[in-house]
Amino acid sequence: MIQANGGNLVEPLDILGKSYVREDGKEIVAGSGRYVDDLSPAGVLYGAVVRAGRPHARILNVDTSKATRAKGVACVLTAEDVPNNAYGPSLPDQPVLCGEKVRYEG
């Protein structure tokens, strides 16, 4: 981009079209590079989602008792437990977790 006075609004990138050495290049190529998924900080909780097994259905009841008693489970959440359980690109009108109705499978 050129400013009205002829100067550049954006400085040219010196790196384009040139080779450079990555600090972790050898590890990445050798398969021993570390990624975020390789890290296991202490005290981390992992989440799992149980998806609907039907493409369209009414939800009459969600029994979480077995999941709540399972070893290592910190908590079980349903749509009732999540305030503002909606999203959408322009209008938040789609539920994140199914509450009363399943709208698609998976």
Please tell me about this protein's structure.
This protein has 106 residues and is mostly loops. The protein has a domain of 52 residues. The protein is built from two helices and four strands. The longest helix is centred in the first third of the chain and has 6 residues. It is flat, with a radius of gyration of 25 Å.
Short note summarizing the structure:
With 106 residues, the protein is largely without helices or strands. It is built from 2 helices and 4 strands, in the order H-E-H-E-E-E.
**Structural class of the secondary elements?**
little secondary structure
What is the gyration radius calculated from CA atoms? Answer: 25 Å
How many helix segments?
2
The share of residues in helices is: 10-25%
Number of E strands? 4
Question: What is the beta-strand fraction?
Answer: 5-15%
Strand order of the largest sheet: 1-4
Low-pLDDT windows of residues: none
Mean pLDDT: 86
Large-scale geometry: flat
Order of helices and strands: HEHEEE
